[in-house]
Amino acid sequence: MSKITGTFRKLREKDEAAFIPYVICGDPDPRFTIDLANTLIRSGADLLEVGIPFSDPIADGPTIQNASVRALKAGMTPSIAFEITSEIRKQNPQTPIVVMTYCNIVIHGGPETFVSKMRKLDLDGLIIPDLPIEESGDLERLVRLSEIDLIHLVSSRSPAPRIKEIVSRSSGFVYLVSVEGTTGAREKVDEKALELIKRVRSICGETIPLAMGFGISKAEHARSIVMAGADGVIMASKIIDLYSKDIADPRKHLEDIAELATQMKAACRQQ
Fold it and tell me: How far is CA 63 from CA 24, 68, 241, 250, in A?
């Protein structure tokens, strides 16, 4: 059983959903990324999603795009991102860590090398939002051999046969996209997002956890998503929005981020 699967099972036994925040490596500097990750984990994160910046993040909205640009301009590379992630792992040995990046990053250095680095650092899952399911077979085999979960995405536009295929080829959890478009904090959860949770659940049953991301920015969003049947809630842009208000001194906002994370985790406990 993978660390991700084990975490979701333990949470389900307690009637809780997982809070899964996202950090992007190197924005605005490596030390802050580690401090931010530690703050989120201490404040209730059950899993952590770590982004490796890419110059053309097509699934991401302006907030994460700008964070990626800042990190890349500061000299961030995949190798340095792995060093940052290694330090986060050392300080948080029990927390599942999921790497999120784009196809070009994996292909450029070689999928075997990329997966081998993940395995060496004891990382648990991989999300590649621009990887079509039809072209994922080779990578699926690599991660399976390395006991790493490959997490695929489902959107509201996915027809039932495709959802079945995505679910059958995913491990760890399935990433449900709450909105049509890119990432970015929203004011409310679209009714279509709640319908998507129920639709995927009706297709896959309890075979794999479902976690929803994109646009989630407050505890009431998390609560409605969990009440609709999701096993996890993913938050990214809102966290970046908070600290990037003072990007020259982002640490002054760690307390606010800790409070938000605590609220999000509390919402994941309310069934």
Answer: 11, 9, 7, 15
Q: With respect to residue 71, please indicate whether it lies within any of the assigned structural domains.
A: yes
Alpha helices in 101-190 (DSSP H): 103-109, 111-120, 137-145, 160-169
Active site (catalytic) residues: 49, 60
Pairing outcome for strands 97-100 and 125-127: parallel
Give residue 218's region: left, alpha or beta (phi > 0; psi -120 to 50).
Answer: beta
Q: CATH number, domain at 105?
A: 3.20.20.70
**Residue 239 belongs to domain spanning:** 3-150+216-268
Predicted model pTM: 0.94
* pLDDT averaged over 10-residue windows placed end to end, the chain, 271 residues: 96 97 97 98 98 84 91 96 98 98 94 97 96 92 96 92 94 87 54 92 94 91 94 95 94 97 93 57
Residue type, 175: Y
d(CA 137, CA 49): 23
